[in-house]
Amino acid sequence: MKDYRYILQPYTGRDSRFNCPGCGKPHEFSLYIDKQTGEILADNVGKCNRIDKCGYHYTPKQYFMDNGIKPKGEYISKPPPKPLPVSYIEEEILDETLSDYEINEFVQYLIKLFGADKTNELINCYNIGTSKRYGGSTIFYQVDINGKIRTGKIIKYDNTGHRVKKHNNWVHSVLELQDFNLKQCFFGEHILKEAPDRIVCIVESEKTAIIASAVYKDKDIIWLASGGAEGINDEKVKVLRGRKVILLPDSSKDRRMYRKWEEKALKYGFDISDYLEKAVTAEQKETGFDIADMIVQNTTSTEPQQLQPEEIPELVLPTKSNPPEPVSDNDIPYSTPSPVALIDSMIENPPIFEGKELLVKDRCFTSIHGDKIELVGVTSYGYCGNWEKHEQANGYCKACLLNTLHNIKINGKLQNREYTQLEVLILQGK
How far, in Å, CA of 202 to CA of 214, rounded? Predict the structure, then answer.
């Protein structure tokens, strides 16, 4: 395993984060340091923590190339570390925070919008807690599909439902839990188990997911929050296998945010809505207008009133139909011989694939026996999930590529199992 010599400086407090050269925001810029000496590489070599809003990232490799410097070795080889078990928050901690809502400005804001009864439903559905930090803050717990509490995000809001800057933290950090191994999940993920057939919409913020779930309840949608495009990754999307998923990114200038989320949609076979990009003004895009902003924009900014049905904007989602239910191989009208039979006959002595032959170029194709094949989405990127770096360093990684898993349709029917890339290549007749 490669242990890179130049790494982002570990967080030790606000003084370890600096002004970003890109957006100018203070305490948001992480510098690259030399792991062997602890020295900073350069004042502009680093990454902005505001990944979606700014996106500045100047790497050591770019710095060396731009300045004609030969690095002193980019990495040191060492054996891979043993994976650490995921850490969890005790359920009693969550239960203790389900109170004191009179000092929770976000909950009070929800009451103004929806009334006390619906707000109580939202609190119970999403496990909205209260922290006494910053004079009263909101806790958004991340509870996974198995009901385990991964952590909680603490955010201070004002009485207009807006975040108070620099007033945020994590439950595990506040509790000072030692050796806590955080593995985040989607906010609202625990709801998936209760409704396995419902459409899933993913937005950026917890606030947006909660407000949208209250307003568009008749749409039969589960609303999740990812925390941004970077919060949609290989590990977290595993719980979404077999579901229709729609991404609804915040609006942004020059569609920058939309393009980032579009990459995620293409990677995982999700739908994506450009509803906000078309519905909001240029001025609203400058502020990152989201679905929640669209919903409450007709209310008074200083003292919002309870929403009326006529004030709620229509939600426009992609018109693609829901994926069909998986069916058994025997129910599919294959041409003969069937692709499955073809794979089974070759799998013990598969053809040899090398280099670019390992790649699947066409998302939709006709198999060598006339069946219509459609790759719906990738569910796992092989053994180590690092094939892009392997390609750059040592050529295509067979272990990663041939064991990449796909959801596929054959003749319009979603299969009830995943197909490896090896199987897809055989179907393609390469």
Answer: 15
> Residue 97 corresponds to which amino acid?
T
- Residue 102 identity: E
* Per-residue pLDDT tens over the stretch 335-358: 333 334 444 444 455 566 676 777
**Cut 0.85: pTM above it:** no
- Return residue ranges of the chain for CATH 3.40.1360: 197-323
Give CA 188 to chain center in angstroms.
Answer: 13
CATH number of 197-323: 3.40.1360
Environment class of residue 293 by beta-carbon count within 10 Å: exposed (0-12), middle (13-18) or buried (19+)? buried
Neighbouring residues of 266: CB distance < 8 A, sequence distance ≥ 6: none
Measure CA of the first residue to CA of the last residue in the chain; give whole Å: 32
50 by Cβ neighbours in 10 Å (0-12 / 13-18 / 19+) ranks as middle
Kindly provide the residue ranges of all beta strands, DSSP E only, lying in 204-325, ordered along the sequence: 221-225, 245-247, 271-272
Separation of alpha carbons 332 and 261, rounded Å: 34
Confidence at residue 308, expressed as pLDDT on a 0 to 100 scale: 58
CA 291 → CA 126, 339, 373, 398, distances in Å?
A: 18, 44, 35, 42
Question: So what's the architecture of 84-185 in CATH?
Answer: Alpha-Beta Complex (3.90)
The residue with tokens 């993913």 is 202
Residues 6+ apart with CB under 8 A from 223: 188, 201, 203, 208, 209, 210, 212, 213, 216
